[in-house]
Design goal:
The protein is of the alpha/beta class. It contains 15 helices and 20 strands. The protein is 32% helix and 17% strand. Bound molecules: flavin-adenine dinucleotide and 3-acetylpyridine adenine dinucleotide. The site of flavin-adenine dinucleotide (FAD) has 36 residues, from helix 1, helix 2, helix 11 and helix 13.
């Protein structure tokens, strides 16, 4: 390992792509814990990732702020010093937090901003990756680590006539930094996922009229956002050791305990009280009420009906309430958004809901949106249409492994990984929060830290053993894919057409992309692999073909 950060960018130990939560922590571990020469390439002109790009009105996290952050793995001092102002922090506050992390650990000096990676090819003779950028640079490194996020390539549906629109249009994932003033405008919002649900109430307060184009209604859960009091902040800080320990053990990386009971094991009236109590707490507590909501259809239906009734209570017009109440998929088989006043928005005079499953969008016209039922004239269109999740950004990196095999080709029939972190024929490539890891089915900072720490420990091991190449075996990969599929099949998750299964992108292979076996279980498996000398990986020394 080199002693200091190399200024020779052709001889890096590790190259990291992306400077969000993942890339920042990875750089810190590589450079400051391992003493490796490392460089981060980032397309944006600052750190933040998700929180740099998603600046739409209402953007905030739905993991509670106090655990949507780096844990004591990064710094106990920072945990003590940083105070979140709201239970669910806004985008500007999270961005400020990540900027603070970058400053505190002096990370920016090893991040090259405004640099988009367009290719990454493995040279089997040299045992190095060569990365190409949009600016024409070529940079080589022994290890390539993608920290490009699961939700960083926007999905802009290819509606006929899309480019003919004469007004202004925006995608929520590429929101203008200067903001948008919708005052007095007629605004179309396409999409009612977590993003639409946050944005629509905000825009409705400003615009003359908002027309919402909904394809699939969601089971939105009350967020229960509120300011963080001094007392709450102190209690959390005092309790952090237990909180972080819990996040690492639970199924979803939240420090919440799931009740050890099934939904149908309690009488109806008691179940109702349990749901009401969880509802009153706000956030994802509702998912912790019973342990079989994701496993058993009848159990799931009890929560689904509870949530439908909440919509019916809050939306005055019964016809609109029924349009908003999901009936075509079980609860939590699409990611449920947290909402703060979303349903009440449909009681406003200036908001119209259009059901585009019944009456699909036929075209974007120069003046608005045309469905089978007619044209809606608007001044602006907001596409809250989500992302080509999990693989979209990885494919755009143009990664080619041994023999020029492209990652996109290798995964054409669905991702094939070992632990969601590496893939055969792509030596020395590590994917942070890759498909088939818990990633988006968890509170992500916890999963990000686990991946980064595992990769850092692995690199330390390779160095100590004089190993220069690491690559999963075909057998280990096959075994992981089979395990992933088996666990997936035990749940209701494949039942909905969600981005979790790639259904939002026409032509994308359908499979459950994140791993649903649980954050704690997954961590145990990864630790076990490491403890057994990186079982399932072939490790080889320089020039050698024999395993180390
Ligand atoms: P990102 O933050 O996506 O960062 C990836 C970086 O890679 C980006 O800066 C991007 O510019 C860069 N990059 C990509 N491609 C290239 C390229 N070719 N060249 C150079 N750079 C490139 N998760 C939760 O757990 N809880 C939440 O409450 C939560 N809220 C969310 C709210 C929104 C609006 C969204 C969109 C996502 C939310 N998420 C949440 C998921 C969120 O993406 C993760 O929590 C986390 O921020 C991911 O961090 P990351 O560093 O892995 O990826
Ligand atoms: O994206 P989505 P998102 N015609 O894919 C619709 C995280 N996040 O940006 O459901 C018509 O969920 C699509 O319809 P349908 C979180 O992980 C977190 O909202 O596919 N409609 C859907 O309504 C989240 O899950 C927060 O039928 C079309 C919407 O667009 C993830 O990011 C906040 C369409 C897209 O919903 C993605 O959320 C925001 C078409 N052709 C985001 N194509 C927090 O609160 C798509 N749609 C933390």
């Amino acid at each position: 390992m080199s002693d200091a950060v190399s200024t020779d960018r052709s001889d890096l130990d590790a190259l990291v792509i992306g400077a969000g939560f993942s890339g920042l922590y990875m750089l810190h571990r590589l450079r400051d814990s391992l003493g490796l020469s490392a460089l981060v390439l980032e397309a944006a002109d600052d750190v933040g990732g998700t929180w740099y790009w998603n600046r739409y009105p209402g953007a905030r996290c739905d993991s509670e702020s106090y655990f949507y952050s780096f844990s004591d793995r990064l710094s106990t001092d920072l945990l003590e010093e940083w105070t979140w102002s709201e239970r669910f922090a806004t985008q500007p506050e999270i961005l400020r937090y990540l900027q603070t992390v970058a400053e505190r650990f002096d990370l920016r000096r090893d991040i090259r901003f405004g640099t988009t990676v367009t290719s990454a090819s493995w040279d089997d003779d040299a045992g190095r990756w060569t990365v190409g950028t949009a600016g024409g640079e070529r940079i080589t490194a022994r290890f390539l680590i993608t920290a490009v996020g699961c939700l960083s390539t926007t999905n802009l549906p290819d509606f006929p006539g899309r480019d003919s629109f004469q007004g202004a249009w925006y995608h929520t994932g590429l929101w203008p930094h200067e903001g948008v003033d919708f005052t007095g405008q007629r605004v179309a919002v396409i999409g009612t996922g977590a993003t639409g649900v946050q944005l629509i109430p905000e825009v409705a307060q400003e615009a003359a009229h908002v027309t919402v184009f909904q394809r699939t209604p969601n089971y939105d859960i009350a967020g229960g956002n509120h300011p963080v009091t001094e007392d709450f902040d102190r209690k959390i800080k005092d309790d952090y050791p237990r909180i972080w320990a819990r996040t690492r053990e639970t199924a979803f990386g939240f420090p919440y305990d799931v009740a050890e009971r099934t939904a149908l094991s309690v009488p109806d009236d008691e179940r109702q009280v349990i749901f009401e109590e969880a509802w009153a707490q706000g956030g994802f507590r509702l998912g912790t009420t019973f342990n079989d909501l994701l496993l058993d259809e009848d159990a799931n239906e009890t929560a689904a009906e509870f949530l439908r009734n909440k919509i019916r209570e809050r939306v005055h017009d019964p016809e609109i309430a029924e349009m908003l109440a999901p009936k075509d998929h079980p609860f939590f088989t699409k990611r449920p958004p947290l909402e703060n006043g979303y349903y009440e928005t449909y009681n406003r005079e200036n908001v119209t809901l259009v059901d585009v499953r019944r009456s699909p969008i036929e075209a974007i016209t120069p003046t608005g949106v045309r469905t089978a039922d007619g044209e809606y004239e608007v001044d602006s269109i907001v596409y809250a249409t989500g992302f080509d999740a999990m693989t979209g950004t990885l494919y755009k990196l143009g990664i080619t492994g041994r023999g020029g095999l492209s990652l996109a080709d290798k995964w054409a029939q669905g991702p094939r990984t070992y632990l969601g972190i590496a893939t055969h024929d792509f030596p020395n490539l590590f994917i942070i929060t890759g498909p088939q890891s818990p990633s988006v089915l968890s509170n992500m900072p916890v999963s990000i830290e686990q991946h980064v720490d595992w990769i850092a420990d692995c690199l330390r091991h390779l160095h100590e053993q004089g190993v220069e190449r690491i690559e999963p075996t075909v057998e280990a990969e096959d075994g992981w894919v089979a395990h992933h599929d088996e666990v997936t099949g035990m749940t209701l998750l494949p039942r909905a057409d969600s981005w979790w299964v790639g259904a939002n992108i026409p032509g994308k292979h359908r499979s459950l992309y994140p791993y649903v076996g649980g954050v704690g279980v997954y961590r145990g498996i990864c630790d076990d692999v490491a403890a057994k000398g990186y079982e399932g990986f072939a490790l080889s020394r320089a020039e050698a073909t024999a395993p180390a």
